[in-house]
Design brief:
about 575 residues, 17 helices, 7-stranded mixed β-sheet, alpha/beta, about 30% helix
C-alpha cells in the first residue's frame, strides 16, 4: 500500500507531466516489454519507489540522478515464486546480498524448515529477519509441520488454528506448499481445515502435487490448491498446465529442464500460468551460479526464448501473486528494475529495488543489516551416541527384513540375512540409514533401516538438514563411522559431517537451527564443497537419482513409498510404521 501514499502519487504525477524533476532517470537503455515480448528504446523516470514515466529516449533530462543504461536491456525485477532460504545454509541477509546483484528483487519464501525446528518462533524469526532487507520477501505459512503427522515428529506441530494465526499476519502471503497430498485428497480433517484457512483468508494456497493425476489431481485442486513445482516429466507438465495449475518451474532438477522447454516450445507460446522458482539452492550453487537468474540462463540455453523466460520470472509471477505493483516496467508500477547486459548470460549492470539502486556491476551497493540469531541456537537436543545405536537388534540366527528400495522413488523390498552377536548383519549390497529425533520432544534413539540401490558405502554421512522434520539422519556402511559422524554433528550443534575409517573427513557446522550458519556465503560454499568432495570417496553416485542431494530428501515421509523417519520405516499411503525393519525371525 506504500505506493498509494497521496503525497508520493502527487509528486510522481507532477514529474510525469513534466512539472517536476524525477528522482532518478534511467536513460539510454532498451526496454523489454514483458507483455508484448518486444524490445524498444525507452527512458524511465522514477519518483521514490514509483515508476512515474516510461517515455521516448532523450525527451527528458530533468532528474536528481541520471543512470546511463546504454547497451543494456531493461526488465522488471525477477520474482522467485517458491523457495527456501534455509537450503542455501546462510542467513536471510547473506542470501539477499547474493541474489540482489543478480536481478532478483522478490522471493516467495516458505520458511517451513525453521518452522519444523522452532515452531511459530521460527516463522516469527524469519519475518523479523526479512523486514529490514532490501530484498522483498513474501513469506508463506508452513502447511505441513510435520509433513507426515503420525509418521514422524518434528520440533513443532502446526494444526489449522496455528496456520490461521499466521495467515492473519500481514507478512504472510498464503499457505505454503501443501505436501500432505493424501490428507487433502482423502478429506483428512487436519489438512482440510488448513487449506480452508487459506481460502478463508483470501490468500494463496500453494501445492506440492508430485505424481498426482486423474481423480487425485482433480480432488487436490478442487480442495483449493492452485500451484505445483513437483513436476516429474514433460507429460506431467502438460497435464498440469491443461488442468489449470499455476506451474512453478523449478531449477533444482536440471535433468528435466530440457524436456520442459521442448514441451513449452511445442505449445508455441508461453502459458500465462508458467512461473519460475529455485526451490532449493545449495550454497556452492548459489555462489557459483546464482538464484533465479541461473534458472533463466539454463532455460535459454536449452532453447527457451529469452523473452519467455523473463516474462515467466516477472509478469506471470506477479499475476500469480496478485501483485499488480510488480512484474512490469510501466508508469504507476513499483520501481523494481534490472539493467541486464544481455538476455543470454543475464549479467546485471544495475538493480533497483523499490526505486533504490541496490547493486551496480554485479556488486551490492548498499549495507545489508544482520539480525539477531540467538533464538535459532541450541536446537540439537541429543546426547552422544554409540556404535550399537546404529545396529538393529534381533533374536535368532537368521531374519527376514524390510528394505527401502531405490533413491527418491522408493518402494518396499525384503531380504534375508543373518544375526551375529544379537544384531542384524546388513543384507548384501545394502546401506544403512538411521534417523534420531533431535528436537527433545520424543525418544532420541536412532531408528535404523536398510537401503538398497544406494551403492556400496565406504564410510558415513550425517546431516541435520533432512527434509522436512530435520531430525538427525545418518547414512553409512558401518556402525562405527555412523557414530563418529553423528557425534561430530551433535557436538557442532548441527550441520553435516563425513566419516571414514573412524575419523572425520569433512565437517560443516550449521549451528543455527541445525540448518544455517552466520558465516559468509563464500565460506559456507567452501565448506559445503569439502563435504561434497569427501562424499565422493564414500559412495559412487549414479545420476539422476542416486546423487548427493538425494540424502536430504530420503526422509521426506509425505512422498509416496517407504521412508525412514525418527519413528521407523513409514509409508504415507498405508499409515504403516515399522519401528524395526525385522519382519520375521527365521
Amino acid at each position: 500500500m506504500d505506493l498509494d501514499d497521496p503525497i508520493l502519487r502527487a509528486r510522481a504525477v507532477a514529474a510525469a507531466r513534466g512539472d517536476a524533476p524525477f528522482d532518478v532517470l534511467i536513460a539510454g537503455g532498451r526496454l523489454l516489454d514483458v507483455v508484448t515480448g518486444l524490445v524498444r528504446e525507452a527512458d524511465i523516470g522514477l519518483v521514490g519507489p514509483l515508476i512515474a514515466s516510461v517515455h521516448p529516449p532523450a525527451t527528458r533530462i530533468d532528474a536528481t540522478e541520471i543512470v546511463d543504461a546504454e547497451g543494456t536491456i531493461v526488465t522488471p525485477g525477477l520474482i522467485d515464486t517458491h523457495m527456501h532460504i534455509e537450503s542455501s545454509m546462510v542467513t536471510p541477509a547473506e542470501y539477499a546480498a547474493a541474489v540482489l546483484p543478480r536481478g532478483v528483487t522478490t522471493i516467495v519464501w516458505d520458511p517451513h524448515e525453521f518452522g519444523n525446528v522452532h515452531g511459530l518462533e521460527g516463522v516469527r524469526w524469519a519475518i523479523g529477519a526479512s523486514r529490514c532487507l532490501p530484498l522483498r520477501m513474501i513469506l508463506l505459512a508452513p502447511s505441513c509441520v510435520p509433513s507426515a503427522p503420525g509418521l514422524e515428529i518434528a520440533g513443532a506441530d502446526f494444526d489449522a488454528a496455528v496456520v490461521a494465526e499466521m495467515l492473519r499476519w500481514p507478512e504472510i502471503g498464503g499457505v505454503a506448499e501443501v505436501m500432505n497430498m493424501r490428507g487433502v485428497i482423502d478429506g483428512d480433517p487436519r489438512m482440510t481445515t488448513i487449506v480452508n484457512a487459506g481460502l478463508a483468508a483470501g490468500k494463496l494456497v500453494c501445492g506440492h502435487a508430485r505424481g498426482l493425476d486423474g481423480s487425485d489431481l482433480n480432488a487436490f485442486m478442487t480442495a483449493g490448491v492452485s500451484s505445483d513445482h513437483e513436476l516429474t516429466s514433460s507429460a506431467d507438465l502438460l497435464q498440469k498446465l491443461a488442468a489449470g495449475l499455476t506451474i512453478e518451474l523449478r531449477g533444482s532438477h536440471d535433468h528435466l529442464l530440457q524436456e520442459f522447454v521442448a514441451a513449452l516450445n511445442g505449445i508455441g507460446h508461453l502459458p500465462s500460468t508458467v512461473t519460475l522458482c529455485t526451490d532449493d539452492v545449495f550454497p556452492d550453487e548459489l555462489q557459483d551460479g546464482g538464484g533465479l537468474d541461473d534458472v533463466m540462463r539454463r532455460l535459454v540455453r536449452y532453447g527457451m526464448k529469452p523473452e519467455w523466460a523473463v516474462r515467466a520470472a516477472t509478469f506471470n509471477a506477479a499475476q500469480r501473486l496478485k501483485r499488480s505493483d510488480l512484474g512490469l516496467v510501466a508508469a504507476g508500477r513499483r520501481a523494481d528494475i534490472v539493467l541486464f547486459k544481455d538476455l543470454a548470460d543475464f549479467e546485471s549492470r544495475a538493480v533497483f529495488a523499490n526505486g533504490r539502486a541496490v547493486s551496480r556491476h554485479g556488486k551490492v551497493d548498499i549495507e545489508i543489516p544482520s539480525f539477531d540469531s540467538t533464538p535459532l541456537r541450541d536446537s540439537v537436543k541429543l546426547a552422544a551416541l554409540v556404535e550399537n545405536d546404529f545396529r538393529v537388534p534381533s533374536k535368532g540366527d537368521r531374519v527376514r527384513v524390510a528394505t527401502i528400495d531405490r533413491p527418491r522413488f522408493t518402494r518396499w523390498g525384503e531380504a534375508e540375512t543373518v544375526v551375529e552377536d544379537g544384531f542384524v548383519v546388513p543384507p548384501a549390497g545394502s546401506a544403512m540409514i538411521a534417523v534420531a529425533h533431535r528436537h527433545g520432544k520424543a525418544d532420541g534413539r536412532p531408528r535404523v533401516g536398510f537401503l538398497t540401490g544406494w551403492g556400496q558405502w565406504r564410510g558415513a554421512f550425517c546431516t541435520t538438514v533432512s527434509h522436512d522434520s530435520h531430525n538427525l539422519t545418518v547414512f553409512g556402511g558401518n556402525a562405527r563411522d555412523m557414530a563418529v559422524a553423528a557425534n561430530a554433528v551433535i557436538s557442532a550443534g548441527g550441520g553435516m559431517a563425513v566419516a571414514r575409517n573412524g575419523t572425520i573427513e569433512a565437517i560443516l557446522p550449521l549451528p543455527l537451527s541445525g540448518l544455517v550458519t552466520e558465516a559468509t556465503l563464500e565460506d559456507t560454499a567452501a565448506g559445503f564443497r569439502e563435504i561434497r568432495k569427501a562424499m565422493e570417496t564414500i559412495v559412487d553416485w549414479k545420476p539422476p537419482y542416486l546423487v548427493f542431494k538425494a540424502c536430504f530428501g530420503a526422509t521426506l515421509a509425505c512422498n509416496v513409498g517407504p521412508h525412514q523417519t525418527d519413528r521407523g520405516i513409514a509409508d504415507v499411503l498405508t499409515g504403516r510404521v515399522l519401528e524395526s525393519p525385522v519382519l520375521e525371525v527365521l
